[in-house]
Amino acid sequence: MSTSTSPCRTIALFNQAGGVAKTTLTQNLGYHLAKRQHRVLLIDMDPQASLTKFMGLIPKELDKTVADAIIDELPLPIHTNIHSMDLAPSNRILSGAEMQLVNTPLRDFRLKEAIEPVLSEYDFILIDCPPSLGLLSYISLVAATHVLVPIETHLKAFEGTDELLQTLNSVRKANKKLSIAGFVPTRYAKSNSADVRALGAISSQLSAWGKIFPPIPRATAFVDASEDRAPLAVYDPKHPAVRLLEQIAQSLEVLT
Question: DSSP alpha helices (H): ranges in 48-192?
Answer without folding.
Answer: 50-54, 66-71, 93-101, 110-115, 135-143, 155-158, 161-171
